[in-house]
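Review this:
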Amino acid sequence: MEDHPSLEDALAAMERRAENAAHSTSRLLAALKRAQQSARSGDLAALKKAVAEQMDLLRAADADAKDLSRAWPYSDDEERRVLEDGRFLREVVETATRQGVTITEQDGLLLSYPVIVRLDPTRRAVTINRKLDRRIRPTFLVKQLAALQQRPIKFKPAQFIESLYSAWEYARRRVGVDQLFASDVKVNDLWTVFTVAPGSAAEYPRQEFGRDLYLLEGSEVRETRTGAHIHFSRSTGTKQPGAIVVVGEDGRRVTYSSISFTLS
């Protein structure tokens, strides 16, 4: 396994071999069409030449096709391991660095603000903002993520702050049982409220919740309809218990520790 090329190099080699096979097959097809046209018109000399030529081209096309079929260096298990053991993550980040695209690896995810990429080794795929995509060649993926970074962000801060306030009201009462209600609520406790339904944690992982906090903070929305004003407790230092670390648009890590609301 150690002798295998990188995924990018392996796919580049397959692309070249497929191009060779396509070229030789195209030449074979052209010779067959010339034989067909010669037979249709009765040009015997041209017919014999085309028939003889297509035999040589057939051998070349067969050799290129066999070369292509034998060229892929990874077994099924090795493909899965490449996505599981960190090699794929490192290769994508290194590719992005060479191309001047900001992509960060964190907790087994690829963070390409505002996009979050999760690996799906079983299906040899990734999910980009929860949408399955099987096109995982590093250079292609980085180009795709760079394009997504340029698109307008689809986020509704006014709707999100209302949901966040409801979660905060519930969470501060739950953590404040037998004592005064908490004012600052850890962001992890808020995420727990958001994902209380079975299976929802997988649908809305912590990193996406943190991303939405970052988008909300970057928006102009600070108050709910009832006038509750949000306050973010965050730092750029070490990750704290119950905190969520996100990566901003400049690639800098931001730690959200807690959220509070005050009435105007």
Summary: The longest strand covers residues 253-263. The chain is about 55% helix and 15% strand.
